[in-house]
Design goal:
3-stranded mixed β-sheet, Ribosomal Protein S8, Chain: A, domain 1, Hypothetical protein af1432, 14 helices, mainly alpha
Amino acid sequence: MTNETVWIVACMAAAVLALLFYSRSARRSAQQTIADAERRARELAEQGQREGETKIREAEVTAKEKLLQARNEFEKISRKRRGELETLERRLAQKEDNLEKRIHELTAREREAGQQERALGRTEKELGERQAELESMLAKQRGQLEQIAGLTAHQAKDELLRVMETEARNEAAHRVKRIEDEAKEQGHKAAQRIIANAIQRSASDFVAETTVSVVLLPNDDMKGRIIGREGRNIRALEMATGVDLIVDDTPEAVILSGFDPFRREVARVALERLISDGRIHPARIEEVVEKTKAEFEERVRQEGEAAVLELNLADIHPELVKLLGRLRFRTSYGQNVLKHSKEVAYLASTMAAELRTDVHVAKRAGLLHDIGKAVDREVDGGHLHIGIDLLRKYGESEAVVHAMACHHGDFDPETTEAVLVTAADALSAARPGARREVLESYIKRLEALEEAANSFDGVQKCFAIQAGREVRVIVDAKKVADEAAVWLARDIAKKVESELTYPGEIKVTLIRETRSIEYAR
């Protein structure tokens, strides 16, 4: 063998030895590691077992505690439920006792009801027998009466009812007439006393105002100066005042015509001043008219204040006082509205004093009842609603506003003062000479009154007298009996009230005349 071979063999032997040594060492190390791992595993297992046993014991303790708590709660709920059940048992037992008592009572009542029912049955049977006997007797008597009277039962019944109805209507008519006569007599006397006392204490102008004014001239030559060259003066005066100047053949006089008394009075005063001054031309006319208008505004205020002082009223708003002054130059059916308002206030307050109601409210409402007419040509709407708005605007009380609002019947009166203002307004407007009524409307009102009375059956003739204050009705005596005349007069009055419009009241007088005529031959 060579050296290389020996060297190789030696190396290989060394390698085998090293491998064997390493293998033995690795085995020992692995065994050591396994032993350590087993020991660690045993320790961990023992530790886990100890911890598991601890947790099990803790879980057992917790479960026991929860079980004990649940048991306590269950026992508590059980005790409560047992108490409730015992209460319910006691209530049920009590109800059972009550039901037993009621059952016993009902049983006793049923027995009593049965006895009463049997008794009622016997009584009903007896009554049936008696009723049959009575019907038999009545039938016999009815037959006998029919034979005696010659009438059937229905005819006798109708005759009896007719007689009783006639007697009842006659008696009712007499009673109604007597009661109405007594009430009318007493009410008429009281009303006459109050109204007469109010009227006799009131002094008012008798005549009504017109729509024309007359200006006297010093001579007839003044007419030419008023007309002016080509009529320029008269045109300027008419344009400035708003009234018509009538220059005719009337000696030493010029007529002013206009529906507005304020404008007519301004024109009259201005024309008198121009005549007195002597300078009459368009520029001077405009100057004098403007100055007169300014003075009249102050006069309007003075007229209102004078009316308030005359009636001894205070605390009326200055604007209402000014509007009252404007009523001095406002007319209604030819009647001066301010004079009419003062008259209404005086009449209403006098009647209020007689009846012992609120005199102040009646007087105040009477004075202000036509206040809307001061501006009804400038504001849309009727004078009544305009007046209501004005009174509320300037602080008048609701009592005054209500009394004023009822004077034309648009609202139902709720106070005595409202009724008195309405009555006073009718008295002031209806007195002779207070107002001028158009002839055509007057005739139509009388014709409508006669037609309303003639529309009833049995009326022969009808006459409206005393300027429509009374209607006399002549009826046919054959168609209308004395008792029916009372009802006919009442029906005519009701129809007149419902269909016609009139101031004051209308008296219905019904005349039934019976004539017996014989001839001696």
